[in-house]
Amino acid sequence: MNTTTPTTDLIAGGAPLAGATGQNDLKSALKFITCGSVDDGKSTLIGRLLVDSKAVLQDHLAGVQRGGETDLALLTDGLSAEREQGITIDVAYRYFATENRKFIIGDAPGHEQYTRNMVTAASSADAAVVLVDATKLDWKTPSMELLPQTRRHSLLVNLLRVPSIVFTVNKLDAVEDPALAFKNISAALTAFAQAAQIPVRAIVPISALKGHNVVDARPGWCGYEGLSLLQLLEQLPATPAESTEAFAFPVQWVEKPAPTLGTDVSSLPPEGAVSPGGGPSEKPFSSSSDTSQGRRVFWGRVATGGVQPGQSVTVLPSEQTAVVAQVLDHARQPQSILAGHSAGIVLDREVDVSRGDWLLAADTLEPTRELSVTIAWMDDEPLVAGRVYWALHGHRWVKAKVKRIVHKLDVNTLAEEDASELPPNAIGHIELSLQAPLATLPYARSRVLGSLVLVDTASNKTSGAALIL
């Protein structure tokens, strides 16, 4: 098992950066999702992982019995509607650990109408396990057609830059010739992945119901001699922080200065109130008479790069400039911070900064009002040119108008087709015109700066996930 060497300081000069180690080593917790078509066995697979890794208590097992037998799918289908209908509706997260690693699993729904839930789960995942039900395919034919939802989910997790994608062929215990079925299905998956330029880590034959190749390897079964799914997951890398890009910081919360003598304290939080760092509130380090630095702390999570005292920053959208006076970690201790970690930033002077503003490394990112994006459309109403939506970038809201629809992607043929609208669950390429400029990067470089969420201005429903080209 390989691990990366600790990062020391990715910013010229200064103290070691918080979170500089453990960003991409194999001992970090792995966040992965299971996805695929309806009834491919996603919930059953997660239940098998939990049971065979001994992550489920006996009293919990006793509560998921049907007809005297354990129904593994019920371990993740927690909503009453899910249990009644036997389907997964929302993303269910479960946590477990082996001797080698900790895991966070997201069980994504397979129904087409819940694709938006799957996209939400995939946006922060380190890996995706795409299940394929062997019993639903014409496995005797090498040139078989894969199910549309299998193709759609595979394309989406690739578009969302999920670093590791693993195909698992499930229910092979229920076909006449498991070896032939796995051979032909693997060939179809490989051809599809190559045509779609999807990098695949592995294709694993499994039986989630019986446990074959899920936790314990079953050498020779279906002609497969590789690792079990869990053994493979234990070796996948976690997503590295985007610490090599220029510094960018979305302001989530502004901590006001402590009241001075004579201030009405009746509206202040009670003694012992919790601060953003999780500890009790305390008097800020700067008094009202101290003019060497600003008196407010800007809290959020570093999106890209790193921050330390002495850095010059530009505020978006006001374009004011300042110098970082102090950087606090989650425990309010002075500490330089790398991407992916929370920070409190104090500037050297008072500038107008509010929730939704961005602090950016000076003279690096050029804000723009025109964007070309790939979009996964999730609204019930089709996307048409001319419509205006709210666009959420970090914590900043701006109006975004759809200038034109460039093309729609056919999930079956992967062809780019001319289109006047994008129906629900379609994937396409569009151009947006923003009411106010945003500092962005291509999604291929940054998951945070390269992504937008479009929200309907009337219903406030999440309408689409946009990936900047």
Question: Which features would summarize this protein structure in a list?
Answer:
469 residues; alpha+beta; 7 helices; 31% strand
In short:
The chain is 14% helix and 31% strand.
Query: Radius of gyration from the CA trace?
Result: 25 Å
Q: Helical proportion? A: 10-25%
Largest sheet geometry: 6 strands, mixed
> What's the number of helices?
7
The low-pLDDT segments are 1-26, 78-89, 265-287
Shape: globular
SS strand fraction:
25-35%
Number of distinct beta strands: 26
Distance between the termini: 35 Å
How are strands sequenced across the largest beta sheet? 5-6-2-7-8-9
From the helix content, strand content and strand pairing, which structural class follows? alpha+beta
Mean pLDDT: 82
